[in-house]
Specification:
mainly alpha; 168 residues; elongated; 9 helices; three-stranded parallel β-sheet
């Protein structure tokens, strides 16, 4: 069975694209009938719900509506939030039982970065000897997989490596 996927990300929420829908008390039954079964992907949830600098109460209203939706929804809506800083999450969201599981995905190791770099270089039709891949991987220790990809894309588009990308 193919599930529909709906994605909410913090910049869209903060810019107001999704804000009105989340602030308005939309009946849970209407959402269930319209979209279930589906996956609701909420990217970087802590940024939308942290309330930092929010003097209007918007973050609290969004949090309240999300929690109400999660507790009242009986249809097949599987909520999958991502979070870069779990300490910034409101305590209401961290309550035991709110989510079935919590998963931690660490930054890739050096061998994993080598594989990521190799995969993306192959997509550009570029073959690189393993010693060069290892050198790049060794100097990108704090890079996520997507940062490795963006780095290679930038290099590919610029047709050269940046002068100061290696730190000693």
């Amino acid at each position: 069975m193919q599930l529909k996927e709906f994605s909410l990300n913090s910049p869209r929420i903060e810019s107001g694209t999704v804000l009105k829908a989340l602030e308005t008390a939309i009946p849970t039954e209407a959402i269930e009938q319209a979209i279930a079964p589906c996956i609701l992907w909420i990217d970087e949830i802590e940024k939308a719900l942290s309330g930092t600098g929010d003097t209007t109460g918007v973050s609290q209203r969004i949090l309240g509506n999300l929690l109400t939706f999660m507790s009242e929804c009986t249809a097949g809506v599987f909520v999958v939030p991502t979070c870069n800083d779990p300490y910034a999450l409101p305590s209401e969201l961290k309550r035991k039982g709110r989510f079935d599981e919590n998963f931690f995905v660490d930054l890739p190791t050096e061998p994993e970065r080598c594989q990521i770099l190799k995969i993306h270089l192959e997509r550009f039709g570029i073959a690189v000897e393993s010693e060069y891949l290892e050198a790049i991987a060794a100097n990108t220790a704090k890079f996520s997989g997507i940062l490795c990809k963006i780095f290679l894309l930038w290099c590919h588009l610029d047709h050269k490596f940046p002068k100061n990308w290696i730190r000693s």
